Amino acid sequence: MTVFLQSLISGILIGGVYALIGIGLTMIFGVMRVINFAHGDIMMVGMYLTYNLFTLCGIDPFASVVICIPVMFLFGGFLQKIFINRVLNALPQNQILLTIGLGLIMSNTIMLIYTSDYKILTTSYSSGSFRIAGISISEPLAISFLITVIITAALYWFLMKTDMGQAIRATAQDREAAQLMGINVKRMSVIAFGLGTALAGTAGALITPTYYIFPQIGSTFTLKAFVITVLGGMGSVIGATLGGVIIGIAESMGAVYISSGWKEVLVYVIFLLVLLFKPSGLMGKSRM
Amino acid sequence: MKKYSVLMLMAFFSAIPSLSPAAAIKIGVINSITGPEAPIGENLTNGTKLAQEDLKKKNINVDLVWEDDTGKPQIAMSAMEKLATRDKVVGVVGPYTSACANAVAKLAEKYKVSLLVPAAAKEEITRQGYKWVYRMNAPADVYASVLIDAALSMGKPKTIAFIYENTDFGTSTTKTAREYVAKKGIKVVADESYSKGSPDYRSTLTKIKARNPDLVFMVSYVADAILLMRQAREIQLQPKAFLGGGAGFTTAEFAREKEISNGVFACTQWTDDVSWPDAKEFARRYKSRFGKEPTYHAACAYASMMVMAETAAKAGGDREKVRIELKKGKWNGIMGEVKFADYDGFTNQNRHQMLVEQIQNGKYETVFPLIFATKKHLYPFPKWQ
User: Fold this and answer.
1) Best interface-test mutation with A: which of B165, B191, B206 has the largest number of A CBs within 10 A?
2) Structural domains in chain B plus CATH codes
3) What is the C-alpha separation between A269 and A266, in angstroms, rounded?
4) Which domain holds residue A62?
5) I need a labelling partner for A133 at 20 to 30 A (CA). Which of A173, A198, B225, B274 fits?
6) Does A58 touch chain B if contact means CB atoms closer than 8 Å?
């Protein structure tokens, strides 16, 4: 029983970070219909930003989220304005090539600067944990989960309650109609891409205290983000949250009850089953 | 008088060119220079560079052709094809990882070029009866046996748990470990492979904790070693000893994480305080040149390059002769005695004595076998704080 609860909690905690990655990707897709293959690499940039803030300025990885969000937002806005905007009406394969290319440029630039050495952050709480009823909970994971919940809630409030959030949702639902209603869709695109980038960067910042970083780390997370968003339904924020947690739990349970080497198989079996019975993903079509 | 000395000088200088050897010997190097394996690959690169300097001192002029395999077997294979057919090298040293070395071994046999593998552990590499494939380091079976022998000499462990990366290196090391503990009467209570790069090993470790093993045997590359030990501490996995099968557990980065690495045993091909000839001198030079502690990979690469270049120089660049000379030769250097022998199904395998080291206060200390020990071992594993 302890083993079961332990793996369930580990799964939920890690799933929170996965959800954050997925939400970023799903927002970008929802508003622009562009599949961002540079998502994992953007997350990697966030990781290196956090790493530098910690080693050079001594800012705690969790506190650095406050810096990470605006910096990554501007970075995302810049990417959208200079690159993505030009291919919005192009063929999908051209959009994919562009984002893959951007990802390659990011990972190789980082490799030139920092070499491909693994970097690992050591904070006072890196291997700390506390126990509730015999189950040990990782301190850094618990904190990052808490931050994830706050950010997701804030994002949800922003999308549902504010004018700008509603404008973003309108753009996601029907770009032309939104434009006819006087919404500046170009601006909404920049904001959506900035938000998506900021979320990916934040996920990177949150995972650095418990993980290690290297320039090629992005591809693992791009794939994961992709599975999460498709599982949850492309364009759905709630779907991505759900998808992230499901993937987290599946990995954790798979490692315990099947084998760590087979946990990915379990993840993809679930993924395929969902697609088989609900091809549009758990939360249906773009509903933001 | 003055005229005479000028003449002498002229005679002296004109004599110099005749001293230098005729043509440079072309030797290929395949290594992981970029990619995920690059942090360890760098040690091999540095070791090879020191060998190149020493060869120059010995008046052996080598022309090294560097190839980067980025840690991928298919790229290593095309590198080998290029070296064998286009660059026409007399011998190749490398590649680093087991997967790459195993793939390249087949090609060495096909193109009839001597391949000297410096640090890959997978047993099969020298177990397929290949004539052209040599290996400097001890293969995976020794990794496991030397660690378990050390554990048995320190206490009476009855159960063991395995956790290893599902790569060539991880699975082959664990396979031989399983066979070896069966012989010694130790029971396997958990057997977990994982795919690297996963951020969460807690659930796997929890499962192992529930079985309460005396020994935990781990095989991982660089960063996963730190991650595994961190999460082991988190969930308070408390065996009598943690045994690390080389690679990630023998890096300076790992030792620096004192909180989690203190007391962990690791097996290694080489340490910088071992009494083999010039080992200490090599460590000193390496540190002053590259500003880092040398790992066993560096020593393996250095010794391999020395052996290959000296043999190639002696054979005068003839591939067939290089192969025969490697088989016949005997060397003594920073890796101890080197001789390529056939035994227990292995061919052209150097019977290298492995060492066991333990991290004490953030430093690696050799603790086993006792003739090489520099410090007393710490057993059982101290309680987590």
Assistant:
1) B206
2) 18-138+275-350 (3.40.50.2300), 141-268+355-372 (3.40.50.2300)
3) 5
4) 28-229
5) B225
6) no
